Amino acid sequence: MAKRNLYLKPKPTLHDFQDYVAKMIKERGFDNEKLPEVFMLFIEECGEMAKAVRKKYKHIKSHKESEDFELEHEVADVFMYLLDICNYLDIDLEKAFREKEKINKKRVWK
Q1: Rounded-to-integer distance, Cα 53 and Cα 31, Å
Q2: Distance between CA atoms of 38 and 15, rounded to whole angstroms?
Q3: Domain locations along the chain
Q4: Which residue, 68, 6, 78, 8, is CA-closest to 38?
Q5: What whole-number distance in Å separates Cα of residue 82 and Cα of residue 67?
Q6: Is 82 helix (H, G, I), strand (E, B) or coil?
Q7: Nearest to residue 84, comparing CAs of 51, 52, 45, 47?
Q8: Average pLDDT of the residues of the chain
């Protein structure tokens, strides 16, 4: 497969990110993965993000020799896999966010 030139504009919308991830997944040959596989990868990245947070905030105990994860990179991985899951399930994340926020705005938060 010929490599495409993936491009993400300087100030992307959420839709732009979601579209970019869809193209990236195809270009890198991950488009045959099934939802359970992608979901497990998402959860794995969530764990790596949690580990990075634990390492960053010293008051949370962590084994000093445990693997280091770059927090910003792990957050980006979680975001990427979330977008991949949304694409797999044909969910427009921006639309879903806006609809859910309309509901949340009507709630009373204590």
Answers
A1: 30
A2: 20
A3: 14-99
A4: 78
A5: 23
A6: helix
A7: 45
A8: 90
CATH class of residue range 14-99: mainly alpha
Distance CA(78)–CA(100), nearest Å, equals 20
Residue with tokens 């770059």: 70
- pLDDT at residue 2, rounded to an integer: 55
Helices 14-27/93-105 angle, 10° precision: 140
pTM for this one? 0.85
Q: What is the pLDDT of residues 65-80, one digit of tens each?
A: 666 778 999 999 999 9
Nearest residue to 19 (alpha-carbon basis) of 41, 2, 4: 4
Tell whether the model's pLDDT for residue 3 goes beyond 70: no
pLDDT in tens, 41-67: 999 999 999 988 888 876 676 666 666
CB 71 within 8 A of CB 45: no
Question: CA 10 to CA 8: how far, in whole Å?
Answer: 7
Looking at the chain, how many residues does it have? 110
